[in-house]
Amino acid sequence: MRKLTFIILVSLGLHIAIASDDAKPAEQLRNEIVKLLQSPRMELENNEAQAVISFTITTERELVVLSVKSENKLMDSFVKARLNYKKVDYNVIENGQVFRIPLKIVIKN
After folding, report:
1. What pTM value is reported for the model?
2. Residues 25, 14: contact at Cβ < 8 Å?
3. Which of 1, 36, 87, 109 has the fewest CB atoms nearer than 10 Å to its CB?
C-alpha cells in the first residue's frame, strides 16, 4: 500500500472575532492546533480540502468547535474529532471569544 504524506497548512492568520475588532493570539495556540490536526486518515478529492474552523476556548482551556465550513463532508467530523475538548495552553482573555482559522489539508504522494 502506498504511503501518503500529509501536510496540513494552517494560515498564519488566526483571528479572534470580538465585535468588530480583530486581534492575534499567541502563535503557540496556532502551533498546538496544527499538531492536533496532523496525519489525517481520509480520502480527499483532488488530494486537498479546505475549511474555516470557528471555535472557542473554555475557562478549563479546552477547545470547543462551533462550526466547520467546508465543501468536504469528512472535514467536519475530522476536525471535531481531533479538536473538540482537547486541552490547550492558552489563557482565555475574555469569556466567549470566537476564534476563526482557515485550514488547508494537502496530501502529497
Report:
1. 0.73
2. yes
3. 1
